[in-house]
TrEMBL record:
It comes from the Eukaryota. Disulfide bonds join C1-C44, C30-C57, C62-C105, C91-C118. This is MCP protein. Residues 1-59, 60-120 form the Sushi domain. Gene3D superfamilies: Complement Module, domain 1. Pfam families: Sushi (PF00084). InterPro entries: SEZ6_CSMD_C4BPB_Regulators, Sushi/SCR/CCP_sf, Sushi_SCR_CCP_dom. SUPFAM superfamilies: Complement control module/SCR domain. Keywords: Disulfide bond, Repeat, Signal, Sushi.
Amino acid sequence: CPPPPAIPQGQHSGNSSGEFVFGSVTTYRCEPGLQLVGQDTLRCGDNGTWSGAPPACLEVTCPRAPSIANGWHSGHSSGRVSRGVTVSYSCKEGFELLGNVSITCTDSGLWSRPLPRCEGAW
């Protein structure tokens, strides 16, 4: 096989000699802060081509911040959110915020901490 395909903002484990025999396997990884999308390994086939398409390295993002009943958050209402962004929650008048005031988009693309909730202040 020829050398494995290069991917922007990532690298593969293939050797630099350019010799890849049938059955050779190369593994891809991304630069820090990026997420590998697709298969992380390719295999050199008996026909001299690599199995499948190479993966891609994409920015880690979280889905839009979840809404809470009787409250709102400081984040955007549409689209994905970059890692490291913190969203703060507030409650409507007459309701009290219970739990964490804010959540953060983590390196894994998930929101940190359980969501707060707004309960009626009697």
